[in-house]
Design brief:
The complex is a heterotrimer. Chain A is mainly alpha-helical. Chain A is built from 15 helices and four strands. Chain A is globular, with a radius of gyration of 22 Å. Bound molecules: adenosine-5'-diphosphate and magnesium ion.
């Protein structure tokens, strides 16, 4: 992710160096240390902590997918919960109706997501900005309605129960197993995104984001690349939805409300627009936030009084945090991080010298 | 009836959008807040219900202005998406707070005020409740007032000008903050009127915000920057909803407005009466 | 001389707290003068006008040093609508009219506190005298006007609020020479009949020098040259770089660059 030169200078001397994901030795060390910590985590964590980590992984996949679409390709979507629902329901329905195994349902969910991506993306060929957001919102309602209809028609009024997935003779269950599986999926998604963004596709998205008409004039297939952004993002999202369904062992439309979409959008905003790291930070933040609030309220005196309205407190606090980020730190957590970094890099100076500002 | 509800709510979306190009997704919640404000004022003016309504509406106007001054003003010049999300966040916040303060239970401000919701016989045998009639009347009045205000009043023209090019408007001596605050205030006021009348007619609980959200496709179908459009859009969406619920499937209620919206966006994305140029300009 | 209507002193303007666009500009405009500001693209002309007419939040620009006085009152860094109400009107470079309003509505927009309706109507009629064509077009949507008509409308809209100082940014931008000549003549007429002071920003020295009483030349955010019409038209640099009349001595590009750099410094 460190695609920008260090403060001390720009040392890349060839294209091969420019293409490397990991550049300096310190970076390599810290990255390996972080990976080790990730691998070791499940052996020390409590089941509750494991569950949190798993939720973070799931959220990361979805947030990365949304970041690709909104943060990089510049296409606003408010249909994220609908896509998650589509993935979850594809898996659920295939399981219920045909007893399909997991190695069928996951790819099927991904493909369903990709197809839906085309549907969600079609309006983007004509619409922009708010209007696009609204059309995806409309599609969200449609998908959720269809899911609800299925539940009602087939008599699963409370939701679909899915058995733990079996691969060969091996049943996937238990927090630790899920931790590694979901972690692998999240890692793979991150790598996929990193590489996509370094490719011509990523550059085309950046161009479209900046100015569509100019991108078109530069010979970039705007329509195709927009659709591609929707397809990839939706496929990943639907995959996350299907994984979610298996992880919870349960699918119900209730889980895919508009609030879920808002949470995902909040992730990329709070994390920091246009940054993959931001998507992950945002996913961590938004996922853990309600638990943090719960803990905080539990610690307050007179906790009993609020226990009943915990969900309302959560809502209100979430709104406040979102507003604070939007108003005070539009660059999100990544912005905060960068500022701290710059502060120490430049210390004791306050500002980076502006190139060419003074002779 | 449904059309009148939608229309009264939709004009709030249009007002804010037209002037500041921001889509106020907290409109549903602000409208609900107006209805709850009635619960407050009802306790004060138990004897005379129009006074309670007037006080609640006044409070809402103030709320709208304050929301602009303390929140949305900070967002001028930011990305549109960020501004819209701020309204979303505001909506979430308001919803949480409202549950905390007034609980999620259904409430009946009409009882609190001691007004009977008598039904009135219409010519032709149909009956309509008193507050429904009042709501339809209010909608017509509000639209009449807003339309003439925007079309002929100098302030109306300035509001339109500020919506098109804020910078130039400021350079022509228009106080943008005043214009924006006015738009937010009026928008919240009309929303609150809708919320109050619905609450008086059929009670008040957390689902009211959903009605607000459903009115939004109505605004879009008509064209987000056109009041006449909002009226027409509301008629279309409401009749589609009533017909489909009646003949096809009651579960569809929440989806219909959005179905109409999708159809509209495919055919004529800028809405029935909206302006086209802003959608696609080089 | 009496106190100038507008005086700018050692003005410095910084964009986004980082980019200095105008550095130490000092200039003044007397009541009833037409003052020209010359300079190439990016010289800081628009920035100067925006500093005088007030920055908008989205510009993220500030006057960091120096003062701007209008009728003796300091006006730097206050909101544009307050400046506009105090009697300064701007004809901007690009977005100059409200495209979705009609011509007549465009003329209704400007706020003019202190003008009673009758007086305003009179002002409007007087302004329309300068641009009779607008009268025919009054019901037309402004976005559909031609460049020249749009410029007329912009000037007219700026004048209906009865300003004392008119700022015009790039009168000739994108317009045919005949149209520019016509507009320039109108400006002179307007100045004569309304007694308004005009600050005219131009890239085209020919236009500005023809009608301006006094002109300043801006380069890289600094004033490098100033003087009345006679001095500037006869100045060798102006002749060479702005009027395109080569003196035949300096030929190579490198010499020119060298020369320009040396000039910049004694500004
Ligand atoms: N909004 C802005 N943000 C940052 N820099 C700006 C902005 N507007 C102008 N500039 C810079 O200020 C300098 C002067 O610009 P400007 O005043 O528009 O020049 P002119 O009008 O003389 O062509 C240019 O270098 C330009 O890049
Ligand atoms: Mg300029």
């Amino acid at each position: 992710m460190s695609r920008r030169p260090r403060a001390s200078g720009y040392f890349r001397t060839g294209y091969a160096q420019d293409l490397k994901l990991v550049e300096t030795r310190t970076e390599r060390w810290s990255l390996s240390a972080f990976l080790m910590a990730l691998l070791a985590f499940p052996f020390f964590a409590s089941p509750f902590q494991l569950d949190l980590a798993n939720q973070v992984f799931l959220a990361s996949i979805g947030a990365l997918a949304l970041m690709l679409l909104t943060g990089y390709a510049g296409q606003i979507s408010l249909g994220h919960a609908g896509l998650l629902a589509a993935g979850a329901f594809t898996a659920g329905i295939l399981f219920k109706e045909m007893n399909a195994p997991v190695w069928v349902t996951l790819p099927a969910a991904t493909i369903a997501g990709a197809l839906l991506g085309v549907v969600f993306g079609l309006p983007s060929l004509r619409l922009r900005g708010l209007y696009l957001a609204v059309s995806t919102l409309a599609l969200h309602f449609l998908v959720v309605y269809l899911g609800g209809e299925y539940e009602a028609r087939r008599g699963f009024s409370t939701g679909i129960v899915i058995d733990a997935p079996k691969l060969g003779g091996w049943t996937i269950s238990g927090g630790r197993t899920w931790y590694f599986i979901l972690g692998a999926f999240a890692g793979a998604t991150l790598l996929l995104c990193l590489n996509l963004l370094r490719s011509g596709t990523g550059r085309a998205w950046a161009a479209i984001h900046a100015k569509e008409t100019v991108a078109e004039a530069l010979g970039i297939g705007v329509a195709a690349h927009k659709l591609l952004a929707f397809v990839i993002s939706s496929a990943l999202t639907a995959l996350a939805g299907a994984l979610f369904a298996y992880y919870r062992g349960f699918v119900s439309v209730e889980a895919f409300s508009l609030f879920l979409t808002i949470q995902y959008v909040a992730m990329i905003i709070i994390g920091g627009m246009g940054s993959l790291l931001g998507a992950i930070l945002g996913a961590v933040f938004v996922t853990l936030f309600p638990y943090a609030i719960e803990a905080a309220i539990g610690a307050l005196p007179g906790a009993q009084r609020y226990a009943g309205s915990l969900f309302a407190v959560n809502y209100a606090a979430f709104g406040v945090v979102m507003i604070l980020f939007l108003v005070l730190e539009p660059l999100g957590l990544v912005g905060v991080w960068k500022r701290i970094q710059t502060y120490f890099l430049l210390w004791p100076f306050k500002h980076r010298p502006m190139p060419g500002s003074r002779r | 009836m449904l059309a009148a509800i939608y229309a009264l709510i939709a004009c709030g979306y249009v007002l804010v959008y037209r002037v500041s190009r921001v889509l106020n997704l907290a409109h549903g919640e602000l409208m609900m807040l107006g209805a709850y404000a009635l619960m407050l004022t009802a306790a004060q003016f138990t004897t005379y219900w129009p006074a309670a309504i007037a006080a609640a509406v006044g409070l809402s106007l103030l709320t709208g202005v304050l929301v602009y001054l303390f929140l949305m003003r900070k967002m001028t010049g930011e990305m549109v998406l960020a501004a819209v999300l701020t309204t979303v966040a505001l909506g979430i916040l308001l919803r949480g707070v409202m549950v905390l303060v007034w609980s999620a239970q259904q409430q009946y401000p009409a009882q609190a005020l001691g007004v009977a919701n008598t039904s009135i016989a219409l010519p032709g045998g149909a009956r309509i409740s008193f507050f429904s009639a009042l709501l339809i009347l209010t909608t017509l009045l509000v639209y009449g007032a807003l339309l003439s205000f925007l079309r002929f009043g100098r302030w109306g023209i300035r509001m339109r000008a500020a919506g098109q090019s804020p910078l130039l408007a400021a350079q022509r001596g228009i106080n943008l903050h005043a214009v924006y605050a006015l738009a937010w205030g009026l928008s919240t006021l009309t929303g609150a009127l809708a919320g109050i009348l619905i609450a008086l007619d059929s009670g008040l609980d957390q689902t009211m915000a959903i009605i607000g959200l459903k009115a939004f496709p109505a605004a879009l179908v008509g064209g987000l920057d056109s009041l006449v459009g909002a009226l027409a859009g509301s008629l279309i969406v409401a009749s589609a909803e009533v017909l489909l619920i009646h003949y096809v499937d009651p579960l569809l209620s929440e989806v219909v407005p959005f179905l109409v919206l999708i159809a509209m966006l495919v055919v004529r994305p800028w809405g029935l009466f909206g302006t086209r140029e802003e959608l696609d300009r080089v | 001389m009496s106190e100038p209507l507008l005086s700018v002193d050692k003005l410095e303007v910084v964009y986004q707290r980082a980019i200095t666009a105008v550095q130490g500009i000092t200039l003044s405009a007397q009541q009833g003068q037409i003052v020209g500001i010359l300079g190439t693209n990016g010289a800081g002309k628009t920035t100067l006008l925006r500093a005088i007419s007030g920055f908008h939040g989205t510009d993220d620009a500030r006057v960091t040093e120096g003062t701007i006085r209008f009728k003796g009152r300091r006006i730097e860094n206050i909101e544009p609508h307050r400046i506009a109400r105090s009697g300064i009107a701007l004809v901007p470079e690009r977005e100059k009219v409200f495209p979705n309003l009609t011509v007549a509505e465009n003329l209704l927009v400007p706020a003019a506190p202190g003008l009673v309706l009758a007086e305003r109507k009179r002002q409007e009629a007087q302004v329309l005298q300068f641009f009779p064509k607008l009268e025919e077009l009054h019901a037309r949507t402004a976005g559909l006007l031609s460049g020249g008509e749009r410029q007329m409308l912009a000037i007219a809209a700026a004048l209906v609020a009865k300003p004392e100082l008119l700022l015009v940014d790039e009168l000739s931008l994108g317009l045919a020479p005949v149209v520019v000549e016509d507009l320039a003549a109108r400006l002179v007429q307007i100045r004569r009949e309304l007694g308004i002071t005009v600050l005219l920003v131009e890239q085209s020295a020919a236009v500005a020098l023809e009608i301006a009483d006094y002109s300043y030349v801006l380069e890289n955010g600094r004033i490098v040259l100033d003087g009345d019409r006679a001095r500037l038209t006869n100045h060798p640099d102006i002749q060479e770089f702005y009027l395109g009349q080569s003196s035949g001595k300096r030929r190579s590009y490198r010499d020119v660059k060298q020369y320009r750099r040396s000039r910049r410094w004694y500004g």
